[in-house]
Amino acid sequence: MEKAEQKLLFESGNELAAYAAKQINYHVMGYYPITPSTQIAEYLDRMGADGQHTIDLIPAEGEHSAAGICYGASTGGGRVFNATSANGLLYALEQLPVQSGTRLPMVLNIACRSVSGPLSIKGDHSDVMFTLNTGWVILFAASPQEVYDCNICAIKIAEQLKLPVIVAFDGFFTSHQKRNCYVFADDKSVQDFIGPINYDYSALNPEKPITIGSYMNEPDLMNNKYQLHLAMEKARTLIPKVFSEYEQLSGRALKTVKTYQTDDAEVLLFVLGSAYLTAKAVVDKLRNEGKKVGVFSLGVLRPFPVEEIAELCKNAQTILVADRQDSYGAGGGNMSLEIRAALQQKGLTPRVISRIYGLGGQDFYERDAIELFETCYKKDIKSFDYIGVYPGESDFKPKPYFEPVSSENNPRLISCSEENGKAVVKGGTVRDTTARPKRLAPGHGACPGCGIPINVNLLLRGIEGNVVLLFQTGCGMVVTTGYPKTAFKVPYVHNLFQNGAATLAGLSKMYHKMQERGELPEGEITFILVSGDGGMDIGMGSALGTALRGDPVILFEYDNGGYMNTGYQLSYSTPMGAKSATSHLGESQWGKAFFHKDMPRIMAATGMPYVATAAESDPNDFIKKAAKAQYYAKAYGTAYIKCLSACPLNWGDKPNTERKVISAAVDSCYFPLYEVEMGCTTLSYNPEQKNKKIPVSEWLKMMGRTKHLCAEKYSGIVEAVQSEVDRRWNRLKVQAEHPEL
Question: Would the CA dihedral through 688, 691, 693, 697 be positive or negative?
């Protein structure tokens, strides 16, 4: 095989993963944004908008569905790609054995990141280790160059083994750091190396129908797993073969086990990922001091290279295995456990020390590598320990930053009662509620003009008495709770996007159950979920379940029209035609390709007692709807309020104009103000009757994300958006005029 022409690029690991995928030209990528892997989909979308590939990128509403999209696509016999990280990987985890158990190839990139809680978005290896038992081949890249190289080899390995392959690399350290790297100058070189697709079967052949994913009893399932085992054993010889072929083509060698100065080493250090490059530099320094040290790492985690590890460790006296994750209670991380097992299996008895390092993205410096090597020369040390931790204060007692806001110091300013089957609010204006102390303090880190604190405080102006807030992951959570401080004066809980409503339902149930048993005093607490940044995409199932059960909580959605906390990728509520990090503009693409989701009508379809939309442009209406939501949640069950929440950074407008932008969304009927009480719809504001109705284009041109739509070439998109907005508005008017709708 002749060496192919290459060119030099200055790119990050994420960019190179995307570039390799572009050159392979996969058929389908199902994806969901999560830091730090999100850029892979963003870069692919940008290249797709420019016509550089024909991959169909499908935005899922969560990682579980993204994995399902990939599995479904792979049953059709094409090439499939995905990328994820951390809790997103765990959310998709149950789909991974489905992919391998049905022997369907695909490639999944994991930009490794700390698994929460507590929430951290920084890099370590606690996510990828959950995949060790899923039946996937796992490659691990230590550098951006290796990310590119591994991705090209991965699809060839996957298709020859009929197994899916993971390409893992360090989040932020490798995913975001740019390096000079070589890529093939011609996409055809990559495609020729991989070869044609050769699937044994497909769900898309009606002439030869097959059943994929049958129900199995013993011994069939046993045989299925044995065949998977045999395929993984075949990988032990196939992977080096593919690596060798790739070296001939590229001039770069990928290794199952990476070694440096290990031949005569008395002391060996094991590190995985980018830390290997730092450790190599330290080995040179210590060798100059006369110390026989070496370092090794793995390029392949599955199948685990037992023979190679035993061979390189056979003369070592001490081996320190440094894990960037812990298998809690096992005396070491997964690599410690597996290396110990490999040595025992081969009858080798060196001293093995385990250390946990670098969790939550803590940097690994040369001084840290030196400390690890020096540990190996000490006699009386722990066989297992953490490095880089601080002791804390044994007598520490957290001090409140604010006086708590409870029913004791929160004057009753609004009353709500039921008349003729509907809630009636007395009071509830901005002036009425000025005396109410803020439950969310000004001490937060939101961007100038951010609508989240404005809308949360408007909502809370209408809520009487004690409150417990639960925030799903998102900008609202991140900017208010940076440890060890908090901006909240009331009890606060956080859980992930997909589970906020269910978590709050459980907390509410516990409160009422403990009261029932006399374990808590009588009283009332209003439980409020605060969701946004796409939380009602990935969290919609949980929210619908809560609504269908009728749990006595308020679901509040601040809709900022995108996944803002990860850098503005499209969400299902992003306007059609809007540009985002995953809906770029280009000759082959014109922004988001489908209409915004009508979440209030979806929630109303559950039959919940109260659904409303609100906007900061009409604060009195907002406050009164909050009061109604509290009444209905207490008296009947789940209530839902949605507001349009400004995001100047990603909407591309100015903080001091946001009230006008929100008002224009309302006047254009893109975001109509209405409520659904006990199944009956009422318009809160009709811009037609006020002679204030404007074309939706007047709203679109106020924001950088959509002002391009005002160009003549996009007139068809604006017409489609206007038509859909009119359809929804006319339906609302009909429902409002009907006594039972």
Answer: positive
